[in-house]
Every structure is written in structure tokens, then in C-alpha cells.
Amino acid sequence: MIEQIPVQEDNIVAFRLSGKLSHADYQAFLPRLEELIKEQGRISVLLELVDFHGWDLGAAWDDFRLGVEHADDFERIAIVGEGGLQKWMALMAKPFTSAEVRFFEAEQLGDAWDWLREPRQQAAAATAPAAPYQSILVGVDFSAHAERAVQRAVELAGHYGGRVHLVHAVENYIYYDESYDPVIPLELDMDLELVAAAKERMRLLIDRLGVGKLDYEVLLGSPKGVILSQAEALRTDLIVVGRHGHRGIARLLGSTANAINNRARCDVLTVRLDATA
Ligand code: AMP
Fold first, then answer.
1. 34 Cβ neighbours under 8 A, 6+ residues apart
2. Is the CB of 217 under 6 A from ligand 1?
């Protein structure tokens, strides 16, 4: 049996296939599919196989004809099923169509939908102008590199009309002890003192750079953890960090910059102090 699944997108159609498909099933299904192709041009198809047992001979012929006659009318075909034999049957369809065909296990249904939507999203992203940066987050460790990062962020915010937030992570504030689970604070007052001192340094830095009034936070934790967490909280669209920090100028990208580059979900700018740094 072939049932159509209602879909919101105008270039994707979805069907649920169950049992053993017969010629009669195709007789009901083909005109509907051809109508959709006529209405919408090139389409992508999701086929959900539920307790599916393949085709009888008549239906196999219908399926072959469909593939040949509409070889160029399909963009992507996602087949979602239980693997094994179903996967094999699904991939049999490949030679008859110019569409990309992929098999997804039943629990990957969401991935199948994302894959079908991808070409449209990519096309839309390629033609739409990039949104201006609205929220720029700078990781500040009070190194010269980070100062340059603040200056760059302020320039960019001026250009895009965005807002700059600075964040400093106070590291090593906790005492790790294997006999306690998992960590115990060393001295609460010491944390507070470190935070207060860093806030004061932040104020002095902003004054000295003459960049106007900027928002800033000082938080306890690892630099990468704190920066990535603040980026999510502030809906940051650009993170700016120095290429290096206090740990000096290694030849490679510093560890914080590297980790953020790998893990951030927004753009990341790593700023060099000068051409050789
Ligand atoms: P690193 O990877 O440690 O060499 O540092 C590279 C950049 O990461 C620095 O220039 C800062 O922009 C940022 N960063 C490093 N440590 C911290 C920290 N404790 N708090 C905020 N940002 C930091």
C-alpha cells in the first residue's frame, strides 16, 4: 500500500510504503506523483518503509518505468526503513534515476528530512545577503593579542551596527580532589577576589583602549567553556579571540582559539597582533 504523507514544503513529497506493492498500488500512486511533478517541477521524495515486503512483478516493472520516465524529475530520494533487506531494495532503485538516493535507518528520520531540505537551504543561503553581525563576543585574557581582538571587534561592530560584549574566564579557581566528588571550591572568598580583580582590570582596559562603553562579564571556568557558553546565551553571531594569549606565541594556533574555532556554532575571527605573530 502507498499512502501520501502531508508535507509543508512545496518541493518535497512523502509517501509511506507498506506490505508488498502491487500493480494496483502503482495505478493509484503514479498519477498523483506525476501531478506533483507537473505542479512543482523537480521534487525530492521521502519514502518511509513500514513493514515493507517489496514489489510483486507487475509493481517492479511500474517502479522501473517510473525511474526511467522521470529520471531527471527527482532531486533527492530519501528512503527510511529498517536496514538489511529494505536497504538493499532501496538501493536497487539507484541506477534508474539521476537523483541522489540515500538510505536512512528508521531512527534517523529527522536526518532524512534535513538531507532533503539541504539543497533549498543552501540555494537560499547562497543568494541571501549575509546578515550583519549583531552580537560580537570577545574573549579577553588581558594579553596584547586579546587587546587587538577588542579593537577589531569594536571596528566591526561600528561597521555593522552591532554590540560588543567582552568576557574573561577566571581559570583554576577550583581545587580538584579525587576523594571528593567531583570538585570542591578552594576558597570561596578567593574566587570572589579573583573575579573582582578581573572586573577592575576589564574596566581599566576599556578605559585605556578608548572604545566607549562596552558590556563585560567575568565568569569562573575554562576559557573555551565560558566563551562558548556566553556565545549561546548572548546569541552571538561572531566570536573574536586573539590568535594567542598569555601562554605565548607558539607556532600553532593557541589552544583556546583552536577549541573555539572547532566548536563554535557561529563565525569566529582569530586576530593576529601583527603579521608575524
Ligand atoms: P590561547 O589559546 O590561550 O593562546 O588564547 C587565545 C585567545 O583566547 C586569547 O587571545 C583570548 O582572546 C582568548 N582567551 C584565552 N584565555 C582566556 C580567558 N581566560 N578568558 C577569556 N578569553 C581568553
1. 70
2. no
User: Could you tell me the pLDDT band of residue 173, with boundaries at 50, 70 and 90?
Assistant: low
Using a 6 Å cutoff on CB, does residue 259 contact ligand 1?
A: no
Q: Give yes or no for residue 255 CB within 6 A of ligand 1.
A: yes
Ligand 1 mean position to 134 CA, how many Å? 22
Q: Are residues 141 and 257 in the same domain?
A: yes
Query: How many independent structural domains does the chain possess?
Result: 2
From 101-105, 211-215, 244-248, the region with the lowest mean pLDDT: 244-248
Domain CATH number, residue 208: 3.40.50.620
Q: Which atom of ligand 1 is nearest to the CA of 253?
A: 2
What's the half-sphere exposure (Cβ side, CA atoms, 13 Å) at 87? 8
Domain boundary residue among 96, 127, 158? 127
Q: What is the pLDDT of residues 4-52, one digit of tens each?
A: 888 877 789 898 988 888 888 888 878 888 888 888 888 898 989 888 8
Residues 140 and 117 reside in one and the same domain = no
User: Is residue 103 domain-shared with residue 154, that is, in the same domain?
Assistant: no
pLDDT band at residue 86 under the 50/70/90 scheme: low
Range of the domain at 47: 2-127
Answer yes or no: is 277 within a domain.
no
Q: Taking the CA atoms of 11, 16, 17 and 22 in sequence, report the sign of the dihedral they define.
A: negative
Q: Where are the alpha helices (DSSP H) in the chain?
A: 23-40, 57-69, 85-92, 109-127, 144-160, 188-209, 223-233, 255-263
